[in-house]
Amino acid sequence: MTHDAIIAQIEFDAQGLVPAIAQQHDTGEVLMLAWMNRDAVVETLATGRVCYFSRSRGKLWRKGESSGQTQRLIELRLDCDGDALLVLVDQLGVACHTGRRDCFFRAAGEEHWHEVADKLVAPETLYGS
Amino acid sequence: MTHDAIIAQIEFDAQGLVPAIAQQHDTGEVLMLAWMNRDAVVETLATGRVCYFSRSRGKLWRKGESSGQTQRLIELRLDCDGDALLVLVDQLGVACHTGRRDCFFRAAGEEHWHEVADKLVAPETLYGS
């Protein structure tokens, strides 16, 4: 099984990356936005465990490798012009490093952002203190 | 009412852009991924009608200005590290220029992408022939 034909349709940017939206497959929750390079897409498809490319660390990031909060791939989707991915996942625990279920926990009010979701676990539980 | 404090928390990239995920607020459908610059965020908040920045046209893109398929802002969310937006919207009609409800209509199979959503309207109905 080769993923060449799948990779060929993805429009990676100048840095070789494509934005990937992780969505919980059954509830519809948008969990996070991260980035994938070619290797991350291939590994995700090959293993069924979601792998991103960490721009800050400059290397593959197997989601949950530190925190245990892994994402199992349900389905990978590509958008109309090929430059964005939607990753339908089954998220174990929490997606956000702050201990919240998803990363989008700030909502724009009249003049400021305000938090709309509580931490479900303490970050030090996820990563050690 | 000023949006300075809201804008100040957004980490725009080197091109002055931030990725914005549009999600239908009640069904949870991920409709599309587009980009916003500072002006697009301010206009969206000020008018309640979602405005992006078109990278291909190099200017503000008031979603639906050609097609009539507008997005009404329900809530704007920001992620944990400030470099991605989630735009909860009420989508009129279809979000995708192909005439499909959302842009993520290709799913990865064993070796190829396959389409998983039908066109709801003909593109030429949206933009003229």
Question: How is the topology of this model organized?
Answer:
Two copies of one chain form a homodimer.
Chain A: H1 4-8, E1 18-24, E2 30-36, H2 38-47, E3 51-54, E4 59-62, E5 71-78, E6 85-91, E7 106-108, E8 113-115, H3 123-127
Parallel strand pairs in A: 1-6
Antiparallel strand pairs in A: 1-2, 3-4, 5-6, 7-8
List keywords for this structure.
homodimer, 129 residues, alpha+beta, four-stranded mixed sheet, two-stranded antiparallel sheet, 3 helices, 8 strands
Structure characterization notes:
Two copies of one chain form a homodimer. With 129 residues, chain A is an alpha+beta fold. Chain A has three helices and eight strands. In chain A, the strands form three sheets. A four-stranded mixed beta sheet of chain A has the order 2-1-6-5, covered by helices on one side. In chain A, strand 5 and strand 6 (85-91) form a beta hairpin. Chain A is globular. The model of chain A has no long low-confidence stretch (mean pLDDT 96). At the A-B interface, strand 1, strand 2, strand 5 and strand 7 of A face strand 1, strand 2, strand 5 and strand 7 of B.
